[in-house]
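Notes from the 1:1 (GR / supervisor)

We went over the backlog. Supervisor wanted to see one worked example end to end before approving the batch request, so GR pasted a single chain during the call. The sequence is below; no edits were made to it. Supervisor asked that the structure be written out right there so they could see what the output format looks like.
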Amino acid sequence: MSGPFSLAACAEMLWRDKPIDWRLKRLTEMGFLAEIWNWTNHDIAVLERSGATFSSMTGYVTGRLTDEAGAEDLLRTAAESIVVGKRLNVARLNLHGTGLGEGGLPVTPVETVTGAMWLKARDTLNRIADLAEAEGVTFVLENLNLPVDHPGTPFARAEDTLALVAAIDRPGLKLNLDLYHAQIGEGNLIALCRRCLPWIGEIQVADVPGRREPGTGEINYLAIARALADMGYRGVVGMEAFASGDPEVALDRFRAAFTP
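Structure output shown during the call:
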């Protein structure tokens, strides 16, 4: 039985000993949409030839939401990402509060997010929404976690990304609600999904601890899948997770969890 969601998987995290085009082709053969991270790390022609249907990719190269110089950089590289996204027919272009460097650490860490930073972030995201609507694309703002993977990232919590996207409330900007990050930082995932529902562009998943496929940790993804279906979510669920063993087994477990 097919489920109510479209399922995607992050090619960057699976079959890491294989070339990217091999990974993309295998995901397509298994019936999954594909997600990639920084497009500048890849040969775009190779990605085009893979035949994959791309659910999302990183929608900027450098920049940040917190100050004018960072905002200009983010908008400039977002425009570059739109060009690539259109070549690949990518559905969603992903944003964070600041650029992420080696090991997922923020390029420009922030200890305290000030009121002025919130106002600048809202202004920058409104400009992103202008750009998105002019170009006919969708950007999504992803929550991250501070305690484990991304300390020092501004606007990392789902509470933060929801506040920003809901305040802007425009079709060119949605949430990428990452439940792995939210479990580490906030928990109460079903209630969080319900609060975020009007603004969700995509949901991403991995289990905690370990950032591996659903069923390997503490999150009851079967219950979350049923709740999402009951509340009417019919969009993409993407597995942004490392495989605990064989990637194909991990993908089968993910599919089973989200076919309620």
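Supervisor's comment: The chain has nine helices and eight strands.
Batch request approved.
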